[in-house]
From TrEMBL, chains A, B:
Protein name per its UniProtKB record: NADP-dependent oxidoreductase
Record CDD domains: PGDH (cd05288)
The keyword Calcium is annotated on this UniProt entry: no
InterPro entries (alphabetical): ADH-like_C, ADH_N_2, ER, GroES-like_sf, MDR_fam, NAD(P)-bd_dom_sf
Amino acid sequence: MTTTNHQFRLAARPVGMPKREDWSYTEEPVREPGEGELLVKVLYLSLDPAMRGWMNEGKSYIPPVGIGEVMRAGAVGRVIASKHPGFAVGDHVSGSFGVQEYALSNGKGVTKVDTSFAALPVYLGTLGMPGMTAYFGLLDIGKPQPGNTVVVSGAAGAVGTVVGQIAKLKGCRVVGIAGGADKCRYIVDELGFDAAIDYKSEDVKKALRTHCPNGIDVYFDNVGGDILDAALTQLAMRARIIICGAISQYNNTTPVKGPSNYLALLVNRASMTGMVVFDYAARYGEAAREMAGWMAAGKLKSREDIVEGLQTFPDTLLKLFKGENTGKLVLKVANE
Amino acid sequence: MTTTNHQFRLAARPVGMPKREDWSYTEEPVREPGEGELLVKVLYLSLDPAMRGWMNEGKSYIPPVGIGEVMRAGAVGRVIASKHPGFAVGDHVSGSFGVQEYALSNGKGVTKVDTSFAALPVYLGTLGMPGMTAYFGLLDIGKPQPGNTVVVSGAAGAVGTVVGQIAKLKGCRVVGIAGGADKCRYIVDELGFDAAIDYKSEDVKKALRTHCPNGIDVYFDNVGGDILDAALTQLAMRARIIICGAISQYNNTTPVKGPSNYLALLVNRASMTGMVVFDYAARYGEAAREMAGWMAAGKLKSREDIVEGLQTFPDTLLKLFKGENTGKLVLKVANE
């Protein structure tokens, strides 16, 4: 009996927002694992803003996805066949399995996950890349001190929700910037942020003056554009800005909007530092243990926004860029 | 006998390039120093790109010069009367004496300088604020390691010439960006830079690829604008950018051009940090001693571009923004 694998492959490099025609939906038979390989049934796919960058040509922190290749994506699934000594049938695993139903792997970059501790999708969010990004970006680069004011944009997203909660755990005042009243309510009422700014209905610059009277000590930026520029107007002395992403700019058809107010770095002796989570791979275990501890103690909440159906992938991905997700956007591909 | 003091006062906040009408030229009698005061005859004035910023309204690292106030300027001069225990008639001193012929001071921020070691104008350049800026910006923020590639813009200016020479002393490969063949020749042939890029006749991005094949480890930015953006395209991993100034943007009548390529910080895990030299005041002595040692050993050359006559101040200042000076621009106000 042959199993069929369905896949989304990159058909064209998008101009602006990715369109349905930028993808091809393909099928092919699933091959049995060879020696040293394992076969994973993909259950949940991670949809991340960074995916938009991987679709572009050119030098970045990771090679672009080639035209005709299965789209790169983090995922969790179950091992259904294995000739790899490290993995057995039935193991739940996390890895870069791609936008498809089945993935063959040599085990590199694949880690087992414990579904008795947390549901599978959590391993794509708070205990996955977004959680690691938040943890290392905030703590290693932001170096928040008790009493500091920490501002995070994309605050209701997979990274932002974790950044804000960790900052609270570290004794900071936390202000989140998010789009819409629901997200703002969520981060304040459910996650315990001190304040939220709704960039869709508020003047962000003015609101930052109100909510950060002593200036921003740490700004964790996921969005770029006008919001980064607004944050630059309210820096405290020696502020640290973490450049984690710039979702407002990823679908631009015009050049990226550079931060006009960057000379605020000079005025405030502040710094702006880029981060890529992969650099911290050797320390993921340490972070996961600490965050799992916070979760077990009820101090760190995880939320996933789960959409069903591999076929919805092209549209579901766009939810990220339209700001339609709260928490980690996950695509459910199959049941166990 | 009453001495008359001539002064340039800020008459209006300039829009774009400062015009003659933005200044008023005033005269008033010189008052005798009171108890605890000294009277300085100003001999040389320091003309600095930062002065343009001080003419603007709004929050910065230092309050703006008020309308009607004598324009702020660093200067060196000779004490001609003193009721201050720390200063005697005949002492040569450096301080923020302003664009005028005579300055009364309470001694705060005034330091004696040794004309037996270096000529007075050198204390406005290599042994003054520009030298301090270069020293602390490069060493404290840039943290150059032997073998690193260091790029500096405004390379033939007061700060840039010192940055490049110190970087060479620290075992770095040094590439300077300057305007015009003469300046480029000067920094390579006279100061020992490894290469120069003439931004007026070369494609800076392309030239940086040629001269920095392993990427830029430290970029010391004095100019902002397109040159900052070009440097961002050629960063090495974990590059450090020092934001010291942005002379290309100071006379803009449109918003500052933010660096469109700032996401290169993310790709390269790089940082961009602002600096203001005043923060290092407590360590000026340390830097001055080390730099004086280098000068005495012939390892650090100082060059001043001296224009005569207080009355020329409005035009002479513009030389900075037109890129007409090589080395430290100094206005000679009077003979001893």
